[in-house]
Amino acid sequence: MTPKRTIAVVGATGSQGGGLVRAILDDGGEFTVRALTRNPGSPKGAALSEAGAEVVAADLDDEASLDRAFDGVHGAFVVTNYWAPLAPDAGISRAERELAQAAAAARALERTGVEHVVWSTLEDTRGHFADDAAVPDVEGYKVPHFDAKAEADAFFAGLPVTYLRTTLFFENFVDSFPPRRGDDGALTLALPIADQPLAGIAVDDIGRSALGVFARGDALVGKTVSIAGDILTGDGYAAALSDALGEPVTYVPVPFDRFRAQGFPSAVEMGNMFQYYAENSAQFTADRDLDRVRELNPRLQSFREWLANRQKSPA
Ligand SMILES: NC(=O)c1ccc[n+]([C@@H]2O[C@H](COP(=O)([O-])OP(=O)(O)OC[C@H]3O[C@@H](n4cnc5c(N)ncnc54)[C@H](OP(=O)(O)O)[C@@H]3O)[C@@H](O)[C@H]2O)c1
C-alpha cells in the first residue's frame, strides 16, 4: 500500500484551513493532515487532534517554526490572516505583516522542498481602481486584504504552487452581515453591491476545492484556480435567505460612499471591496466557472444548498 502523503495546513483552526482539515479527514484518501496552529494546546488545537489531525506549533511570524512544521510534508496550504489583531506598537501595517508572513512561508517551503503549495489568494483591485481617485486608499492599497495577497503571489512563483483565488464566504450572510429587522419589523439585507452578481462560497468548499487541487497535483502547478459556490445578485441572496428563514427578506443596495462613511474600523476597506465586487462583477464571476469548480469538488454547495445543510446540522 502506498503510504499517505501529508499536507501541512496553515490556519487549521480557522475557516479556510479548518475546511481543508475537515475535507482531508472526511475523505480518508491519499493524504493525511498536519494542522498548524500557534497554540496546539488550545481547545481548537485539541479538537483537531481528537479529530485525527497531527497538530504542530507554528507561527507565521517565526520562520524557524515554519521550517519545523513544513519538514517532510508533501504539500502545504498557506493562508494569511490580514484581519488578525495588530499590536498598536507593531510598527507595520496589516498589509505589510501579511506580505512578511507570506514571504516567510514561501522561504520556509523552498528550504523544506515541498512538492505542492496551495496559496490562498485574491485578485489585485488596484488595476480596476487606477483611475478612480474617489476611492480612498487604505494602507497605500485600495483593498489591502486583496491587494497584499495578490502582491504576495510573487513570493511563491519559484515554488510548485497553485494560486487558489477564493471569494466572499457564505458564512458572512449569517455572522457578519445577516438580514436585519427594521423598525417596521421587516428583514432587509443591506449591502453595497448594486444590482451586480456576487460570487460566494462556503468555507468547507474552499477546503474541498483545495483538496481537489492537491489531488490533481502537477496538472495544476503554476495555475490559478478561481473558486465560488454560487453567483447571485443581492436579490438572489435575499430570496434564498427568505426561503431559509420562512419570511421575506428584501435586498437594499447601499451606496458605496454611504457604506464607507459608517465609521467602523474596516468600513472604508470593506466599502472599497464591495465596490470592486460590484464594478468588476463581470470579470470576477466569469473567472469562477462553477462547473469547473465542481469537477475539483463534486460536493460544491450553492448558497441555497449551504443554507439547507446548515439548517440540518447547525454549527
Ligand atoms: N471573510 C471572507 O469572506 C473572506 C473571503 C476570502 C478571503 N478571506 C481571507 O481569509 C483570511 C483569513 O482566513 P480565515 O478566515 O480562514 O481565518 P480565521 O477563521 O479568521 O482564523 C485565522 C487563522 O489564522 C491563523 N493565524 C493567525 N495568525 C497567525 C500566525 N501569526 N501564525 C500562524 N497562524 C496564524 C489562526 O491560527 P491560530 O490562532 O490557531 O494560530 C487561525 O487558524 C483573511 O486574510 C481574509 O482576507 C476572507
Automatic annotation (TrEMBL):
<protein>
    <submittedName>
        <fullName>Nucleotide-diphosphate-sugar epimerase</fullName>
    </submittedName>
</protein>
<comment type="similarity">
    <text>Belongs to the NmrA-type oxidoreductase family.</text>
</comment>
<dbReference type="InterPro" id="IPR008030">
    <property type="entry name" value="NmrA-like"/>
</dbReference>
<dbReference type="InterPro" id="IPR051164">
    <property type="entry name" value="NmrA-like_oxidored"/>
</dbReference>
<feature type="domain" description="NmrA-like">
    <location>
        <begin position="4"/>
        <end position="305"/>
    </location>
</feature>
<dbReference type="Pfam" id="PF05368">
    <property type="entry name" value="NmrA"/>
</dbReference>
<dbReference type="InterPro" id="IPR036291">
    <property type="entry name" value="NAD(P)-bd_dom_sf"/>
</dbReference>
<keyword id="KW-0521">NADP</keyword>
